[in-house]
Amino acid sequence: MKTMYFLIIATVMATFSMNVEAQKTSNGKKVLVAYFSRSGNTKAIASHIKELTGGDLFEIQTAKPYPADYHACTEVAKKEKNDNARPELKEKVKNIEEYDIIFIGFPNWWGTMPMPILTFLESYKLEGKIVIPFCTHGGGGEQSCFRDFVKNTSKATNKKGFITSGGAASSARPQVEKWLKEIDIIK
């Protein structure tokens, strides 16, 4: 019975401690982690950010899914980029005005952000918000990803983005934590 009592107390204390930590790390600001991910790499980084900031996750999805085949998907993405398309999104963040800090993640597609990210950015008024990009890539690096992001979020406050190769995404939590401290999001 005594052991059970201490176990319950320890669980309650751990839960309380996690909640306090999440509030402390986001500096009292409400955090949204929005991401677009084809293979799961960008989702892995989004999950790290969510865990470290206590933020809410939102997956950016297109109304018409991309082809499952990699090469077919890249051809659609290339055409969208060439056409400067704005693919329709499956759903919107209904309460975006409540968020102070918005992380937006995406893979590098053809040297920049996937076009659904532009649809997302153009769907909201981001003035007064802190917006922070994060990107995964398959070897192409940053290229124009962050420069294009800042160009399309110029009315918001931008902070330095995070980039990693897709293959390193699932184990990048220490690097994500270091970056979040560098940009003064967590302590």
UniProtKB/TrEMBL annotation:
Name the record gives this protein: NAD(P)H-dependent oxidoreductase
Record's signal peptide: 1-22
InterPro entries registered for this protein in UniProt: Flavodoxin/NO_synth, Flavoprotein-like_sf
Domain Flavodoxin-like positions: 31-184
Keywords in alphabetical order: Signal
Listed PROSITE patterns: FLAVODOXIN_LIKE
